[in-house]
Amino acid sequence: MSAPAAPGASSIPSAPPSYEETLAFSSCYPPPVPGTVPGVWSGADAKGVNPPAYYPQPVPAPNPNAITVQTVYVQQPVSYFDRPVQMCCPSCNKMIVTHLSYNAGALTWLSCGSLCLLGCAAGCCFIPFCVDALQDVDHYCPNCKALLGTYKRL
Ligand SMILES: [Zn+2]
């Protein structure tokens, strides 16, 4: 007698709760899960992606500074002054220190003329030709005697 009662009793109570549970779960799950969750994540992603696109725009400002710094270091053309310059001679391709030779330049003649106008006619106007600081400087290679450059006062 127990055999027919067991399946009947077990089948009856099991059926109603299954429907209620399925209804309860089905009613609760579908609305919140697909609607809110994807929307929140998509919104967060969109907000996270947009700001970085705006940041790089104000960055280009330091570029001019970087260019000026590079030009300082990349000075390949040697700048000649009134001092010996250590460089690679373009003629003999050797590392040399330039030999200086002073020549009368524009500043030398201007100094001579101004001294003459001031009345220093008794040979004083030739003093600038003896003052290295008033003369142009020619840079020669001590190895091949090539003229590498000239430093002009004016
Ligand atoms: Zn040389």
UniProtKB/TrEMBL annotation:
It is found in: Endosome membrane; Late endosome membrane; Lysosome membrane. Signal peptide: none annotated. Coiled coil: none annotated. GO terms for cellular component: cytoplasmic side of early endosome membrane; cytoplasmic side of late endosome membrane; cytoplasmic side of lysosomal membrane; cytoplasmic side of plasma membrane; Golgi apparatus; nucleoplasm; nucleus. GO terms for biological process: cellular response to lipopolysaccharide; negative regulation of non-canonical NF-kappaB signal transduction; regulation of cytokine production; regulation of macrophage cytokine production. Pfam families: zf-LITAF-like. Residues 69-153 form the LITAF domain. Keywords: Membrane, Metal-binding, Zinc. InterPro entries: LITAF, LITAF_fam. It is a peripheral membrane protein. PROSITE patterns: LITAF. The keyword Acetylation does not apply. The keyword Metal-binding applies. GO terms for molecular function: DNA-binding transcription activator activity, RNA polymerase II-specific; identical protein binding; RNA polymerase II cis-regulatory region sequence-specific DNA binding; WW domain binding; zinc ion binding. Belongs to the CDIP1/LITAF family. This is Lipopolysaccharide induced TNF factor. It comes from Ornithorhynchus anatinus (Duckbill platypus). The gene is LITAF.
